[in-house]
Amino acid sequence: MKLSVDSARCQGHTVCYMVAPDLFKLSEIDGHASAAVDEVPEELLHVAQMAVEGCPEQAISLDENE
Questions:
Q1: Nearby residues of 36 by Cβ (< 8 Å), 6 or more positions away
Q2: What is the pTM of this model?
Q3: DSSP one-letter code for 31
Q4: pLDDT tens-digit profile of 18-36?
C-alpha cells in the first residue's frame, strides 16, 4: 500500500505522527507531515489506517499499488 499526504490539506495537527511515528515525518518549521515511507510494511497497515481515519483534515491517503 502506498501512503501519501496532501501537503495542501495538512495543517500540522500531528495526529498521524502520534499514531504512527514510523510512517510519517514532520517539518521542523511548521509541523506539517509527509510520508516517511513509500510502501507501508504489512505489519504497520493497521496503524496507517488509523492515521488516515484520524486526520482532522483528511489529508492522508492509503492506496493500492498498481
A1: 22, 23, 24, 25
A2: 0.90
A3: -
A4: 999 999 999 999 999 999 9
CB 5 within 8 A of CB 16: yes
Backbone angles phi, psi at 56, to 5 degrees: -65, -25
The answer to whether the beta carbons of residues 33 and 5 sit under 8 Å apart is yes
Taking alpha carbons only, the member of 48, 53, 55 closest to residue 32 is 55
On whether the CB atoms of residues 57 and 9 are closer than 8 A, the answer is yes
Q: Coil, strand or helix: which one is 58?
A: coil
Per-residue cell: 41: 510494511
State the pLDDT at residue 65.
73
pLDDT tens across 33-49, in order? 999 998 999 999 999 99
Which one-letter amino acid corresponds to residue 1?
A: M
Using DSSP's 3-state secondary structure scheme, residue 49 falls into helix
